[in-house]
Amino acid sequence: MKTLITNVEIIDATGRRPGKVLIDDDGKIKKVYKEKGQVKAAHDREIDGQGKVLMPGFIDMHCHLRDPGLTYKEDMETGMKAALKGGFTTLVAMANTKPVMDNAEALKANMDKAEALGLCDLVQVCALTKDFSDADLVDFESTREYTNVYSNDGHNVDNEETMKKGLAASTEYNFILATHCEPETETVERDIALLRETPGHLHVCHISKKDTLEAIKAAKAEGLDITCEVTPHHLYASAMEYKVHPPFRSYPDRRALIEGARDGSIDICGTDHAPHSDEDKLKGAPGINNFETAFAMYYTVFEGAGISVERLSQMLSEAPAERMGIKAGLVKERYAGDLVLVDLDAEERVDPRTFISKSHNTPFGRELLKGKVLMTFKGGEIAYDNGSLV
């Protein structure tokens, strides 16, 4: 179905402009028109954006879908539907499932399941080591066919030799090695030192400290291939006791992260969506439900700090797409027709009871946030419509 979206302000990493967008039968953007441009191309459906903002679909480089094995917390379908409500059209799901995603058969099964659901695009992360072991690396030859991201997220890679071999493999097989670092700054500094010796494609997950950011900025200045991400909760709040990994940090750390978002030293906005049952959360499981609140949390922080929506779009869409080699993340001809219609003026209080996700673990219930996802398009089709999945 050819879909024409009219009467919108288009915002992506390249700027903002009023216009219209035509999405072709193949789910790709066929034409981006100026506001007064005449649309002569045939189309089956016209959607009036009512003057709201149209952005490229968000790409989450860090989430947990809990599928297989932990589906009482979340499953692929509920997670993806919650993601679409939040404007996310591509998900990079971590490997700490049960069993761990550490072989080609498991990766293929999850990719096939995602394709059958037809909701979000899935990049299923493969573990770096078998069953998150200390030194037993996975088979890169077979697993690389199904993914280009490897990570032991949730577990530090303590063995330096394992980390060096992982970096070397990321170059040889051309994949991204995403790291969960604890203790954070010390481990990042160690990994940067290893990256100098053994070139690789390193991505540092959910940074939370000023000193960590300073180390990454210095590594980038050296020309090392390193990127990093921040989460909505670490930008939005500080010094909270609510249990997350890494923990909420100090106010100076949070301010440093906001400046890192502003100046470009932090590359990507992830969610680290980590759903848990109420029982598991009471037992101390670390993690926060973020899919359905991430955009509003980010926008509330960015607007308050005077950081542009264009920069937010870059961090939510263009930068993760570029890092993973996906032709998406911009409102541009021949790019994916994955788009999000948002109301930047809307204010809404967080109500976990309305979450589509199976879990409701958030400390931000009743917080007043600004910015609301009205509609999410996946491949030109309406996947979420202002509270109603279609």
Automatic annotation (TrEMBL):
<dbReference type="InterPro" id="IPR006680">
    <property type="entry name" value="Amidohydro-rel"/>
</dbReference>
<keyword id="KW-0378">Hydrolase</keyword>
<dbReference type="InterPro" id="IPR032466">
    <property type="entry name" value="Metal_Hydrolase"/>
</dbReference>
<dbReference type="GO" id="GO:0006221">
    <property type="term" value="P:pyrimidine nucleotide biosynthetic process"/>
</dbReference>
<keyword id="KW-0479">Metal-binding</keyword>
<protein>
    <recommendedName>
        <fullName>Amidohydrolase-related domain-containing protein</fullName>
    </recommendedName>
</protein>
<dbReference type="InterPro" id="IPR050138">
    <property type="entry name" value="DHOase/Allantoinase_Hydrolase"/>
</dbReference>
<dbReference type="GO" id="GO:0004038">
    <property type="term" value="F:allantoinase activity"/>
</dbReference>
<comment type="similarity">
    <text>Belongs to the metallo-dependent hydrolases superfamily. DHOase family. Class I DHOase subfamily.</text>
</comment>
<feature type="domain" description="Amidohydrolase-related">
    <location>
        <begin position="53"/>
        <end position="382"/>
    </location>
</feature>
<dbReference type="GO" id="GO:0004151">
    <property type="term" value="F:dihydroorotase activity"/>
</dbReference>
<dbReference type="InterPro" id="IPR011059">
    <property type="entry name" value="Metal-dep_hydrolase_composite"/>
</dbReference>
<dbReference type="GO" id="GO:0005737">
    <property type="term" value="C:cytoplasm"/>
</dbReference>
<keyword id="KW-0665">Pyrimidine biosynthesis</keyword>
<dbReference type="GO" id="GO:0006145">
    <property type="term" value="P:purine nucleobase catabolic process"/>
</dbReference>
<comment type="function">
    <text>Catalyzes the reversible cyclization of carbamoyl aspartate to dihydroorotate.</text>
</comment>
<dbReference type="InterPro" id="IPR004722">
    <property type="entry name" value="DHOase"/>
</dbReference>
<dbReference type="GO" id="GO:0046872">
    <property type="term" value="F:metal ion binding"/>
</dbReference>
<dbReference type="Pfam" id="PF01979">
    <property type="entry name" value="Amidohydro_1"/>
</dbReference>
<dbReference type="InterPro" id="IPR002195">
    <property type="entry name" value="Dihydroorotase_CS"/>
</dbReference>
